Amino acid sequence: MKISDVLKERMGFSFEVFPPKTDVGMEKLCGKDGVLDKLYTLKPDYISCTYGAGGTNVGKNLEVLDKIQKDGVCTPVTHFTCIGNTKEGIKEQLQNYLDHGINHMLALRGDLPFGWTGTGGDLHYATELVKFVRQEFGDKFTIAVAGSPEGHIACRSLEADISFLKQKQDNGADYIMTQLCWDMDQFRYWLDAIRNAGIWLPVDVGIMPILDQAATINMALSRNGCVMPRELCEIISKHWIFPNPFDKEPFDAAVEQKKKDFKEAGIEYTINQIDEYRACGINGIHLYALNKYDDVARIVKESGIVDLI
Ligand code: FAD
To answer: What is d(CA 75, CA 291) in angstroms, rounded to the nearest whole number?
Structure first.
């Protein structure tokens, strides 16, 4: 069944993983009784796998998705970007996914590599990629697209960003996967605004579990400029690792305890956020699993998402 149809019928639930760089990491994720095998036990509708800008990890991305496809427990969804890709290259790669039985994709422009000013490929925006995939492959792919509740970091206005999202729908997208957003007032404003703009696509909300201080700050600020609500900032401040959470050799005597306490508070924060999202009229929860199982499973079970299906 197409994931977009699942999302129209009932609340969906999914995970996102990334292709590990090393063989050890691949074994941990894809090996017998590895993270993927464990994530299946939580019965997600789909698992998506990220795609490195410029196709740097295409081989590993396909290896991960191929396993998910062969295991047959849930739908594999590949992320795909315009970065450095010619139209011919896009056609070849997408045909290769189809040949492997992978027919769901998240069509993205992609994050521009450091120092680049454009995609360096034939297509410049996700809108063009959606149009191209529909032209070349008809309805063979179910296409998800990114939505940015706070506005994409480079957008000239939130209104312009929403109009491009509408264009993705008009060009043939099937559902929306959102960028992380901790600012719930902003999220509710955006959801109303896109519905008023005539965007009726199902909205699958991306949620990053708060597990690690440095990773949380990094995710919010290194690319996306996400607002961090006071409550989240307080959690970070209360458990601050000195001199700072990015330091490889902190001089803080209580590092391990602080990490543990931060994770506890972060998991509680994430579960509360899932409750708030579910009360907003969204269509699915997409958890960035960060290639982990234990903490993610706890969030899934304690938030009750596991009972959705
Ligand atoms: P677009 O929708 O193309 O928008 C990019 C910018 O251009 C925006 O500011 C928009 O307002 C503007 N714009 C859009 N269309 C037009 C137009 N026609 N004319 C003028 N301006 C326009 N990145 C990766 O590299 N790999 C991944 O695997 C990956 N996974 C992701 C998963 C999710 C759920 C999300 C939300 C993002 C992911 N990203 C990933 C990040 C994403 O690639 C970046 O956010 C990227 O900077 C923008 O991609 P986009 O598809 O939103 O771009």
So the answer is: 17
Q: Is the CB of 125 under 6 A from ligand 1?
A: yes
CA of 237 to the centre of ligand 1 (A): 31
SS3 250: coil
Mutate to test the pocket of ligand 1, among 125, 127, 178 (most ligand atoms within 8 A of CB): 125
**Helices marked H in 34-117:** 35-40, 58-71, 87-99
Q: What is the pLDDT of residues 3-46, one digit of tens each?
A: 999 999 999 999 999 999 999 999 999 999 999 999 999 999 99
Q: What are phi and psi of 105, to 5 degrees?
A: -140, 150
User: Is any ligand 1 atom within 6 A of the Cβ of residue 123?
Assistant: no
Assess whether 16 carries a catalytic annotation: yes
Q: Where are the alpha helices (DSSP H) in the chain?
A: 3-9, 23-30, 35-40, 58-71, 87-99, 126-137, 158-170, 184-196, 213-219, 230-238, 255-278, 294-303
Identify the pLDDT of residue 308: 58
pTM for the whole structure = 0.97
SS3 118: coil
> In this predicted model, what pLDDT tens digit does every residue of 64-76 receive, in sequence order?
999 999 999 999 9
State the Cα–Cα distance between residues 49 and 66, nearest whole angstrom. 11
- Distance (Å) from CA 236 to ligand 1 centroid: 28
